[in-house]
Amino acid sequence: MQPTVLLSALLLAGLMGMVGQGARTVVGLKKLHDFNATQAPDQATTFLASRLVISLIIGFIAGVLAALAVGLDKLAGPAGAAVEVLLGLAAAGYAGADFIEGFMSKAPAITGGAGTTGTARTEPPSTTTKTEPPATGASQPSEQADRLIMQTSQLSTEIASLQSVLATSAAASGWSSLSAATQVTPELVARLFVPATPLANIRNNLPHVLAGLRSYGLADRDMLLMALATIRAETEGFAPIDEMKSKYNTDKAPFDLYEPGTPIGKRLGNTQAGDGALFKGRGFIQLTGRDNYTRIGTQMGIDLVAQPAQANQPRIAGLILAQFLANKEDAIRAAAAADDLVLARKLVNGGSHGLDRFRDAYTKGRVAIPDGIEI
């Protein structure tokens, strides 16, 4: 990136942070005015201009840090900065010192390695891998490294959350920009689904799916088609939902075919009584089993094991979908390039469940969504 372009992007980010902090100051001044109106003249709190200057500086710094976290390319690209990105910088400036403190506490002191490759819903965990105790004297550095990697992942998740919320607001307000939320419209995506799929669901949840893909660097047509076709196969209503009872998961009690000791339960890594229902399928991709909840949650920096129902929150469901695709990205891209949709589906699902719906959506998407579209 050219130095002048870099400086321009940082300056824009800082100014947007100042705008956010300025908005917070206005709110504070209104509260101060209302408070002073209830006090005696000699007890009123005075406004100090120096505090305003400090607040604006804090907003500028927060805006710059937010831009570094999101990526300066979002500001310096040929199309300019998207509305939701600018609003995100302003939101960081509004948070001010809190955002700066959170950023600094989660900034990694080391570079973490690539996340481990996840498994598909019905793919059995390895039976040959076991956990060895760390060598004497090596556990503390290892724990610190894991903690830093987790904190970095949490920061990325929080940024993606902010982008998702802002994208939803932009879509609801009808703002026009060159961003993914307006280019990949709900009406366009609806062509890949059946008429019974509520358009309102697509409008509400599409921004979270797109934000998840962007946060994992999967912002291209191939991975978009993979994500949308997967949703079509798993949750045709375009909403994160609980897995329903069926002959495939229930015999006598709900989800008892997923319990420990059963063939499916073993493949899913369920180890405790009640795991079948506790770790049933959830979200856009129907995340299933203790093993998957543990692995994906750890990669995302979210404790899905302690609170499995989080997988149905649209923002988190979008990130889970993206994490699954990221884990098998190279293999998925190779399968798509070879037009092997059976393999592409198996890489995520572990089998051929919903293959007809997946194939139909993917094929329609190739026609409806132009190549080179920006997400």
Automatic annotation (TrEMBL):
<feature type="transmembrane region" description="Helical">
    <location>
        <begin position="79"/>
        <end position="97"/>
    </location>
</feature>
<keyword id="KW-0378">Hydrolase</keyword>
<dbReference type="GO" id="GO:0016787">
    <property type="term" value="F:hydrolase activity"/>
</dbReference>
<feature type="transmembrane region" description="Helical">
    <location>
        <begin position="48"/>
        <end position="72"/>
    </location>
</feature>
<dbReference type="InterPro" id="IPR023346">
    <property type="entry name" value="Lysozyme-like_dom_sf"/>
</dbReference>
<keyword id="KW-0472">Membrane</keyword>
<protein>
    <submittedName>
        <fullName>Glycoside hydrolase family 19 protein</fullName>
    </submittedName>
</protein>
<feature type="region of interest" description="Disordered">
    <location>
        <begin position="113"/>
        <end position="144"/>
    </location>
</feature>
<keyword id="KW-1133">Transmembrane helix</keyword>
<feature type="compositionally biased region" description="Low complexity">
    <location>
        <begin position="113"/>
        <end position="137"/>
    </location>
</feature>
<keyword id="KW-0812">Transmembrane</keyword>
